[in-house]
Amino acid sequence: MLGKEMMSIRNLVYALCLTLSSVVFSMVSPSWFGVWVGLEMNLFGALLFLVNNKKKTVTSAFKYYFVQSFGSSVMVMSIVLGGWMGEDAVLSGLICGLGVKLGAVPFHFWVVEVLDGIRPSCMWFVLAIQKVVPFCSVCQGFQGGWVLVALSGASAVVGSISGVGSTRLSRFAGYSSVAHTGWSLAACFGGQVVLLYYLLAYWVSLGGFLSLMGGDGYLSSVSGGSVRQSPFSLGISVWLLSLGGFPPFAGFCGKVVVLMHVMKWSPVLAFFLLGSSVTSWTYYLFVMSMSIIGGSKSVYPEWSDRSVVFVFLLAIPFLDLMELLL
């Protein structure tokens, strides 16, 4: 037993070092080839996080590996074709490869499948840390253009509509991630500072919500004649409000900043983003209302109650930064 624990800790440390070093390597790389090498290093580090002794995690890891490898293949082909044509890279192929890695529409079908069966901590890792390099690459190389507008608007709308009525945590987090991917791509119009501001608001809200969940179960559903109650609490409700972009929480600040910058580039995209946000509110409020009606209790009641104060305190620095970025 001790040997297994030591092996698990060793694998975790190795995966963490590999992931962090790959992110730094990609961020400082002067070429697309270097970005691709860093993404491949990052992929192998992620697999060590995803896999444990359960069969479902192995299946999810295999799906994630296959999809990310496909995205990398598209990027490599674009770099090679660009070299033959005397260009740095074929930009349309690169943004498609990065779109696959991000799970942007129409490359979003893998997101829910990968999240199904893995731990909430791994969900946060896949939806947050693994998207740092692709988002920053898109922001640096594709700041503007109709392709970015199309990916952003389609992801926001499809993610919000698909998430309506989601009953499992994996589907809820997955489709919510697709919608937030659209908003994150829109944040690229404002530059890296706006992008990181929005990503930080989303990651903190998502992390707070997932930390209160006991695992990938039903948020609210009736199955087999009995109600499967969700782990509900005031803390989960407040984190959901922040994740959905309700004022005055961090998620609201991020969306306001993004909208102000998008209005300067494409008012049409801003309209689609607003529509997707309103649609998303329906299933955020649906989850909260069903949990309240069912009388569910939190899995971690002590941390849940304390986190309410943390959510409100967290909104203060985001409100201050929002004034500087507008």
- The class by helix and strand makeup works out as mainly alpha
Q: Number of folding domains?
A: 1
Assembly type of the chains comes to: single chain
Poorly predicted runs of 5 or more residues: 1-7, 221-231
Q: Give the termini distance in whole angstroms.
A: 54 Å
Percent of residues in helices: over 70%
- Give the overall shape, derived from the CA principal axes: globular
User: What is the topology, as strand order, of the major beta sheet?
Assistant: 1-2
Please tally the helical runs, counting DSSP H or I stretches of 4 or more residues: 14
- Count of DSSP strands: 2
Mean pLDDT: 80
* Beta-strand percentage range: under 5%
Rg, Å, rounded: 20 Å
**Main sheet properties:** 2 strands, antiparallel
The sequence of SSEs as H and E is HHHHHHHHHHEEHHHH
Give an overview in words.
- Helices cover 76% and strands 2% of the residues.
- The protein is an all-alpha fold.
- It has one domain (1-325).
- It has a two-stranded antiparallel ribbon with strand order 1-2.
- Helix 4 runs antiparallel to helix 7 (132-141) and helix 10 runs antiparallel to helix 12.
- The N and C termini lie far apart (54 Å).
